[in-house]
Specification:
It contains 5 helices and no strands. With about 190 residues, the protein is mostly helical.
Length: about 190
Amino acid sequence: MNALLISLLVFAVIFGGALIGMFVRPLLSESHLHPDSKDVVKLATGLIGTLAALVLGLLIASAKSTFDQKTNQVRQLTTSIIVLDDLLAQYGPEAAGVRNLLRQSIQPLANRIWREQEIPTGKPIHFQSTTEAWTFENELERLSPKDDVQRSLQSRAIQTFTDGAQIRLQLFAQTGGSIPTPLFNNSGFLA
């Protein structure tokens, strides 16, 4: 159920409750309209409103925290790719093919990260590396360094690739909604 439909349903229920209240008020006895009864209803309504605001505030804080964490991970992954490209550029022309593989793998990686946000929660999905990642890693390890500088650059590039792969795996492990599922019942509404 999409958010607009849920919002319209909530609006209709609240509006319907207000209309029913307007029609029922003249039918109430005088004892129900006493100022003490009105004060109790006002206090109860205030308490419910405060609790609802607290719960919504906590949900928003949780969603923001998750969003900030994922944003930082995407930035770290982007930084790893830029550093990896720079290391391969320093390696020399022998790494031109590997750099091309790196650049070709960026678009499928981005598409895969954003498509994973559409995966419904509760269904187990297993992580699988892409063929682009396997090919890039194999070509990176096949580079033949000619001196200590290239050997160091290759080692740093492999480490940077490994760090980027770990960040990518963390992003995959955190797919799904930021609102804990126990707060929802089967219909998708807050329980």
